[in-house]
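Hey, resending since the last one bounced:
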Amino acid sequence: MLVREELEKNEWKTLSPLASHADRSRGRARPEEECDIRTCYMRDRDRIVHCKAFRRLKDKTQVFLSPKGDHYRTRMLHTLEVSQTARTVAKCLRLNEDLVEAIALGHDLGHTPYGHAGERALNSVCPLGFVHSEQSVRVAEVLEKNGRGLNLTWEVLDGMRNHGLSRHPATLEGQVVRLCDKISYIHHDMDDAERAGILKEEDIPGDLRELLGHSTRERLNTFIHDIVRNSRDLGEIAMTPEIDRAMRDLRRFMFENLYSNPSAKSEESKAISMIQQLYTYYMSHPDKLPEEYLRIAEARNEPVERAVCDYISGMTDQYSKAKFEDLFIPKSWSKM
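The structure tokens again:
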């Protein structure tokens, strides 16, 4: 018996009946021969980790644009923290950790430079619209490997596409990532805000602190325990109503006091303007786009707007800044 077959057989012995078993996957868009030692979800996880878009996450903003310090989260660190939290929940619920990890590692592959500011910038200028979760799926299905894509399983793509709070993943594993994405960024964004001196623990409303905990560590612990206790054999992944309301209230507090805070977002308008100007430039000069993006769009009979969004959204913070300087800043000024 192949190692993969042993692993698949062991899943039926150890995982919950509600889990997504690898040998019951709905498969890939392009059928391919199975690996002899890895299940399909293990294979997807490896493909994501080794792709170019994943590596670029290390230089993409989470919340703070160009922070002064080594300990602030990037999009890469956010992704890794989501993965770790989601794996903990999956293990406790006897769900498929490999599927959870693949979804978590891939959920932000399509994120723009400068975080949600870059996403809003592209969405505001592109008539086709731009949503980073849909772009993550596009990266995996189309853009990686010179247009061949990663050919991930249906379950992983579904979890990546539906990780937004208002979406509904088809698998319990996707639901785990959906919730863990939210509690992870609430946790680490508050941690970064405290490190930056923008917020302090006492700023959080007292009733939320009494219920959820008096530190970022305690609140993360509360969220994880609540999900595990409430979701065992439930058939869905959910918090108790009381903790869910508190999480949403805390999330609202973060939006009002951090995500729109001038101290944290002082450079955001510049980033938005820069991304918008890059978009306008490449729409006027599509011949300046890398050939691979034009080739993919032409092969799929897609408008140039999609190729422009593909290129810009794939940029890192530093690369987009360098391209902007190259295109718009006179060379003689650049060293002044």
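The chain has a mean pLDDT of 93.

Sorry for the duplicate.
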